[in-house]
Design brief:
Blueprint: E1 3-5, E2 9-10, E3 14-18, E4 25-32, E5 37-44, E6 50-53, E7 62-70, E8 73-81
Parallel strand pairs: 2-8
Antiparallel strand pairs: 1-3, 3-6, 4-5, 4-7, 7-8
């Protein structure tokens, strides 16, 4: 595991704590329940230990799957967007 989410519920942003990075590029894909891609981000995180993915306020409320890619590693997490 190379990242922790501060909370599995969000309103307009996701906050990550980055752990044991194996490279500098962090890529994230946020998918809805049907598997459609709702948002994508790529960020260079050379010396950062925290990162906030902003701009998620336009997404509808509901359940999402977050896929994170860093180096050769991949993580999946279930999230909920609330009011």
């Amino acid at each position: 595991m190379f990242a922790k989410i501060k909370s599995s519920t969000f309103i307009d942003a996701l906050q990550f704590e980055l752990i044991a990075l194996k490279g500098s590029l962090l890529r994230g894909v946020l998918k809805d329940d049907s598997g459609s891609v709702c948002s994508v981000m790529e960020k260079n995180v050379d010396a950062e230990r925290e990162f906030i993915w902003q701009g998620l306020n336009d997404l509808p409320y509901g359940r999402y799957t977050l896929e994170l890619f860093q180096g050769g590693d991949e993580m999946k997490m279930n999230l909920v967007k609330r009011v």
